[in-house]
Amino acid sequence: MSEKYGVGKFLSKPTAAYQLLIASTIALTFIGIVMVFSASSILSLDTKGNSFGIVGRQLIFLCLAIPCAFIASRQSLSRWRLVSRYGFIGSLILMLLLLIPGVGKTVNGNRNWIHLGIIDIQPSEIAKFLLILWASSTLAKSQLSGRSKSNALALLSPVFGVIILLIMLGRDLGTSVVFVCIFAGLLWVSGVSLGIFAFFTTAFAGALTFFILTANYRAARFLVVLNPFSPENYKNAGWQPAHSILGLASGGFFGVGLGASRQKWGNLAEAHTDFIFSVIGEELGLFGTLGVLGLFAALIFSIFSIALRTGDAMSRYACVAVGCWLSAQVILNIGSATSLLPVVGVTLPLISYGGSSLISVYLALGFVLGVARREPAVMSHLSQKKKK
């Protein structure tokens, strides 16, 4: 009965992934605006003189992001292929700008921002999408030429290696891990052998260990995961994860109420960015966090479903890469908030405050939406709606 009338019936529709993508994006964006306001109100009042300063900026970013997504969803494949030619060059230029004295800006120890007067932008966020386009087009061309699947590693690793190295020069390990996850997803879907994938995984683990051991603050963040409340950790590297856990724990099943978080009153740094999930848990409780997780599951499911349905190789690779990108950030952000993973400083897509992140994610989702719109069943559905 449920298969006939419930979720199964909806998911069996050819337009299900298209509709699910739009619905989950809207829902997560709405939750993001509400929670950015709640989590940032105290900080905004203290630094800007009013409670709406930070959320107001986020609303401006959203007003820029929505047209970007709309335009992206209407672009033809030929135009995306043209853009993809310059994806690596564009990413490289953006990352090199950070190394120019007076241009790159250091925030919380990471040199990953460019100051443009009234706003700061994070080039690595835009580089994610540009590099995905380049890599997807490269793999699609390789597939059409009939080259060996193992060729994917040779094609992509030098370019991803250069970009990740430039990111690491800015000491941004979290963003580097996201790029590695995108790279791994592209390798996997390209069909490389398990041996090659295992080699890549081992090499990444070795590099990660090296970067952790060569920086005391990174080693402290990794070790503190075991017990952030210990006397030697609590007032140092354990402060953020400890207060994040306290916020989640105090929320219970139903939360303390929207706007009533106590941790955001100075105890939990970056409450509106890196640790916004903790504020959600404290104010909306377990049901609120499960609702957010459910929406992310729906969003990522819809992206991979669209990837499976498309007949275009470049679109399929790009959709998978976008899905890996968002999945990695969700896991890293929530893992940090729950102290299951070290604090790595990545945003929760569509929810955390951040203009560069919001616009780049909307661009990527606009691309995926365009892939779905080009499916014959979806095109037919949309044309029928226009006629009514």
Automatic annotation (TrEMBL):
The keyword tRNA-binding does not apply. The chain crosses the membrane at residues 20-45, 51-71, 83-101, 152-170, 176-200, 207-226, 284-308, 320-344, 350-372. Its main location: membrane. GO terms for molecular function: lipid-linked peptidoglycan transporter activity; peptidoglycan glycosyltransferase activity. Its EC number is 2.4.99.28. Pathway: Cell wall biogenesis; peptidoglycan biosynthesis. It is found in: Cell membrane. It catalyses: [GlcNAc-(1->4)-Mur2Ac(oyl-L-Ala-gamma-D-Glu-L-Lys-D-Ala-D-Ala)](n)-di-trans,octa-cis-undecaprenyl diphosphate + beta-D-GlcNAc-(1->4)-Mur2Ac(oyl-L-Ala-gamma-D-Glu-L-Lys-D-Ala-D-Ala)-di-trans,octa-cis-undecaprenyl diphosphate = [GlcNAc-(1->4)-Mur2Ac(oyl-L-Ala-gamma-D-Glu-L-Lys-D-Ala-D-Ala)](n+1)-di-trans,octa-cis-undecaprenyl diphosphate + di-trans,octa-cis-undecaprenyl diphosphate + H(+). GO terms for cellular component: cell division site; plasma membrane. It is a multi-pass membrane protein. Keywords: Cell cycle, Cell division, Cell membrane, Cell shape, Cell wall biogenesis/degradation, Glycosyltransferase, Membrane, Peptidoglycan synthesis, Transferase, Transmembrane, Transmembrane helix. GO terms for biological process: cell division; cell wall organization; peptidoglycan biosynthetic process; regulation of cell shape. This is peptidoglycan glycosyltransferase. It comes from freshwater metagenome. The lineage of its organism: unclassified sequences, metagenomes, ecological metagenomes.
